[in-house]
Amino acid sequence: EITAYIGGEGHNLSGTPQFVLVRGGRVRDLPGVRYHIVRGSLDCLGVEGRRQGRSKYGVKKAAAAAAK
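Given the sequence above, the corresponding structure tokens read:
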């Protein structure tokens, strides 16, 4: 068990155990937090309505999603 930071606005993870992809990278404001959760992979969804910097938050391109 580790403590990891969830970037972006809001998330779908609850207190129950979840499978998430973790990458390294500390958070300066939070002592002891040395990992980030990768958004848009496994059980962690991407950020809703994100238009810029989408690759960092696991969001597909809006035009591609609308075409399907």
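Residues 1-68 form a domain with the OB fold (Dihydrolipoamide Acetyltransferase, E2P) fold (CATH 2.40.50.140). Try to locate this feature in the token string yourself.
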